[in-house]
Design brief:
Blueprint lengths: L6 H4 L1 H15 L4 H15 L2 H13 L4 H5 L12 H14 L7 H11 L2 H24 L5 H7 L1
Helix pairs in contact: 2-8, 3-4, 3-6, 3-8, 4-9, 6-7, 6-8
Length: about 150
Amino acid sequence: MTAKLDPFAAAPAQMKQLLDLSLAIGKSLEPGLVHLVEIRASQINGCANCLNMHTAAARAAGEQERRIYLLSAWREAPCYSARERAALGWTDALTRLSEGHAQEAAYEALKAEFTEEEQVVLTLVIDVINGWNRLAVGFGLWADHAPARAAA
């Protein structure tokens, strides 16, 4: 993959704001849950850059390999909690909005596991990772996880 442009060079102030927002929002929920959501949205969007970075970050934070491997089949895999399933269902529903509005069932599961504030924060986490996916896929970005973590 060849990068089309470097958004950090083209719009450094705005990209720093996005990075700062990403880091701040990501700290508002349990890290393992955020990693799963970031990986799942990146799978749906086909973002190799974000999959590379977020699977490495999840592993570094102690996430089990099998839970990372099974994430694309989370509905059938027994290794996710009800809270994680609710977050993943909400991630799928919001990331796939263009495929039809099927978020009502996902929202009911979300309400059962998350406070109203957590619902908003999780939705912001999903918004942010979808934005990063679009930047990375759109501009052909690739960053090794170690330098990206160091920059963050």
